[in-house]
Amino acid sequence: MATDYDTPRTADLEDAPEQSLEALKARRADAAADLGDEVDPFETELDLPGADLSGEELNLRVLPRQADEFTCTSCYLVHHRSQLVDERRMICRDCAA
């Protein structure tokens, strides 16, 4: 059966059961309390033993932007000049697409 989505909708307020504000708040609180009780079984499987890297320090040499590179003003990534599409706006090929 085809449905005409342009016709005005009629709300059947007489058919809907009336609920008090307190009942709606209680149902909302019950639903919110149920969200945090369940533990995802896949979450425990993803924990890697000995994966605590809080004491590790990352040493990485960062090079400044070279003469043949530019920083895209849209994605803020450094690209080679061959990726430059709009020199006035300094947009890379990926962002221009």
UniProtKB/TrEMBL annotation:
Pfam families: DUF4193. InterPro entries: DUF4193. The lineage of its organism: Bacteria, Bacillati, Actinomycetota, Actinomycetes, Frankiales. This is dUTPase.
